[in-house]
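Handout, section B. The chain below has 51 residues.
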Amino acid sequence: MVTSERVHYQLTALGHSLDGPLDALRTWAEQHMAEIDRNNHRADGLPPEPE
């Protein structure tokens, strides 16, 4: 049986600097999910879902 070597990845300081902006984006998306879903349905030509 052949096994591959283990590789451990780690973010650099630059990668970690995205923590704040990505958290802010996630928060924004969670707060606007209903509006995003409505706009996606409209763009896809689907009837709006009941709220």
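Note. The chain has a mean pLDDT of 91. Compare this with the example in section A.
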